[in-house]
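Most newcomers find our protein records easier to grasp once they have seen one. Sequence and backbone structure share a record, each on its own labelled line. To make this concrete, we reproduce a full record directly below:
***
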Amino acid sequence: MARDWSSATMAKARYSRLQGKKWSSSTFTLVLSMLLMLSIVLLVLLALGIFSLPVGSHDSQPPNDLASFRRKIVVEIDDGLGERGEQWTEVLSWEPRAFIYHNFLSKEECEYLISLAKPHMVKSTVVDSKTGQSTDSRVRTSSGMFLKRGRDKIIRDIEKRIADFTFIPVEHGEGLQVLHYEVGQKYEPHYDYFLDEFNTKNGGQRIATVLMYLSDVEEGGETVFPTAQANFSAVPWWNELSDCGKGGLSVKPKMGDALLFWSMRPDATLDPSSLHGGCPVIRGNKWSSTKWMHVDEYKV
C-alpha cells in the first residue's frame, strides 16, 4: 500500500513538471508571436510614413529655441515677391507698445510699392477732426498716395502678412498709404487715433499702425516717440540719430523693416504715449508705407 502511494506521488510530480514545461513553452511562443506582430505593424507604419523615428543632428536647434522655429515658419508659408533676409521681431518699447519686424518686406516688394505710387504722388494732407475731410497742413510736408486694399496679388500678400503679424484681420485695415519725404520734409508729432466721432464711423477707432520702410535714409527721417516711457539712449543706433531723433525713442529707417505700434492699450483706452512724428530728412530720400488698422471692419 505504501508503495502504491509513493508511486502515485512520483507520478503526480512528473505530471506537474511536464505541465510547467508546457506552460512555459506556450507563454514563450505567445510572447514571441506578439513581438513579431508588433514588428510587422511598425514596419508597415514606417513604410507608409505614418510613423517616423527621431534622427539626431548636430545642426538641430534645442527644443526651447522657438525663435528659429518662428523664422522658419514665416519664410516657408509666405508667398511674396523676392527673397527676404532673416526675419525676427525686436521689442522697442512697452509704453507705447512698439515692435520692429526686421526684413518684413523684400527689396523687390519695396521697389514695387514705390513704382506703383510714384506716378500718382500728391502733397500729403491731414484729416480735419470736425469735418473728416483732408486738408493741407504745415505739420506734414511729404507727398503720398493710397493703394486700394487688395489691389493685386503682391499687395494682398503684404496685407496678409500684416494681418498675421498684428493678429488683426485684413478687413480691418485701410489701404496702404505710400509716402515720400525729400530733404527738409517732416511730419510733426501727432496721434493716429481720432478724438471725434466722425472719423470713427467707418471701422471704429484706429487701434494700431504698421509703418514699413521702403528705403534707407542717409541721415534724418527717423520715426520718433517723444513721450515714450523708455531710455531713449539705450538703442544701439543712438549715435547715428539726428538731433530730432534724439528727442525721443527713435527708429532709424531701414529698407524692408516694419514698425508696429499700438494706439490703444489692451484695456481699449487710448494711449497718449503713442504720440509720434517723422523727423526731417537731412540727406537722401525717405520712402515708407503705412497701414492703419481699426477695431472693426473698415469698409473700402
About this structure: The chain is about 30% helix and 25% strand.
